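Q: Can I see a sequence and its folded structure?
A: Here is a first one.
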Amino acid sequence: MSWLKLYWGWTGRLNRLQFILGSYSLSFVSTLAMMALVPMLAPPAPGGFVANNAAWTVIAITQLVPLPWQLSLFTRRLHDVNLSGRWLLVLPAIVVADLGLIRVWAAFDESVWEMLLFLPMLAGMVLVFFAPGRPEPNRFGAPPRAGWLP
């Protein structure tokens, strides 16, 4: 089935449409799983779901399970703009560095540091969602097929 190619594999390229289909469908399925499992596995505590640690554990697990597939989608989308998937390692490093700066300079206006933390993420999302893929073959393979599925 060609739709399995959308979720499995770390090689090749994805166009913007395929990336959006894959990431939104993974988010949709994990959110449905969370909405179904939280009431079953973590019944409401007297203080509500927020006060229930089991609910937060179920939420974290259902949102972290699709992480390898999301990273695969991001890697193949970066391949389409002729960047290595190793660039995904840069974003956590920038976030950690920004968090360190926020901690050191916490006496200053916090909104400035929060914006500095947000800017690298925003730049990465603009690249992934809006940068057109290379129409010619690159080191990661031939251009992806046009359409929804690879």
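Q: Show me another, different protein.
A: A second, unrelated one:
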Amino acid sequence: MSEQAVPEPLEFVQLAQPREMTARRRQELIECWTVVSNAGGAVIPLEFPGPPVGAEQVAPAADALIAGLDPRRGRLPLAPCAAPGPR
């Protein structure tokens, strides 16, 4: 019998307030949304222009979503997003 590699479990984080967003998480969110949008992803905030987009177009939409976090009505679940190519 051959041994199969067991995948690492994903780290899920749920943010409920803007102060919970770190600079690194914000940057990773912007990078992930940029990659997904440019790959033709279907879940794109209305504030985005059509692809191709860069971080400068994605950041305002991410910042608006972060500013609207509230534990009673708006939370943001996060999981790692691996972009193709070197990081």
